[in-house]
UniProtKB/TrEMBL annotation:
This is Methionine ABC transporter ATP-binding protein. Residues 4-229 form the ABC transporter domain. CDD domains: ABC_DR_subfamily_A. GO terms for molecular function: ATP binding; ATP hydrolysis activity. It holds the Pfam family ABC_tran.
Amino acid sequence: MKMMEMKHVTKDYGNQRGIFDVSFAVKEGEVLGFLGPNGAGKTTTIRHLLGFSTPDKGVCTISGKDCFKEAETIHRSLGYLPGEIAFMDDMTGKQFLRFMADMKGMKNMGRMQELIEMFSLDSRGKIKKMSKGMKQKIGIVCAFMDSPDLYILDEPTSGLDPLMQNQFIDLIREEKKRGATILMSSHMFEEVERTCDRTAIIKEGKIVAVEDMKTLKKNKQKIFHVTLASEAEALSLAGEIKGVREVKETQVTIGIKGEMTEFIRCLGNYRVLSLTEQRQSLEDLFLHFYGGDSNE
């Protein structure tokens, strides 16, 4: 069953801004990543699913309901975390969470307390004095505290430190096991890789692919910086191995796709001083998958 669906949705703001002929669906119980660089159209797409914007063309539905005409009904059973959270800054974090719980009609605050402890949230202070990371934690607690069956999350780990990012990934896995349906936008490939079943990739307002995560992982390129004992050895390695991207003095940058056995065997013939892996940037991913033969 399709829980969320967009069919040929266009919203043109002019000057090539907006989204164009966007189509994808999120199945019941699925975690779908929505991946793209800042400004690619992720938030605009989400605003249409939430009924905050109406499309110039196309249709958006959640659980078979029109996202704009039946937004109020949809929101009652939806956990939403916006990219930019609006708070009542004069409230304390605790007061705001209680206010949101009352808005949701919550009677049991047990899940809220679990999330507060999970994210080490000190909710006693005034929101206006809180850091971005602390405000993001409040937003996460608000979205998850009534355990809805459907979530829309816009850049959910923005402002969180690495430890809290890992806690959030654990939370997504927990909700996935419970059977929740999740659409999660991000510009971080690693975050999506660790949580999602499939990923829709948007670039310049257009969906360029909807891929199974197993396919993306299989085709993802690993980038290594190898520092050798001499420039001569660096040049020799560069001439012997495939996937060389750059040679700079004693350092060779190499892109490896798939199995690494031959790469490791080759390194054994040289004096390697250091070997570091570079996180693949989103731009690298786009070039690798969608840039054509010239970008191999």
